[in-house]
Amino acid sequence: MAGIRRWGSPGSWRAQSYVALASSFVRIFFANLNAPATAGFVTTLQDPRVLVLLPLTGIYFFVYWRTNTLGQNAQAGNVNTITQVARNLIACLGTATLAAIGWFAAPADAVATGLAALLLAVLAVAWWTKQRVFLFQAMVLLGLATFRLSMHNFFHLNDAVSSSLSNSIWPLALIGAGLPFAFLIRRDMEAGDSQGWWAVLLRRPEQPMFFVTFILVGVLLYLKMSGGTVTLSWAAEGVLAFMLALWVKERSFRLAGLALVIFCVVKIPWDTWQFHDWRRAASLIGVGVILFVISFLYGKYSDSLREYL
Question: What is the pLDDT of residues 259-270, one digit of tens each?
Answer without folding.
Answer: 998 888 777 777
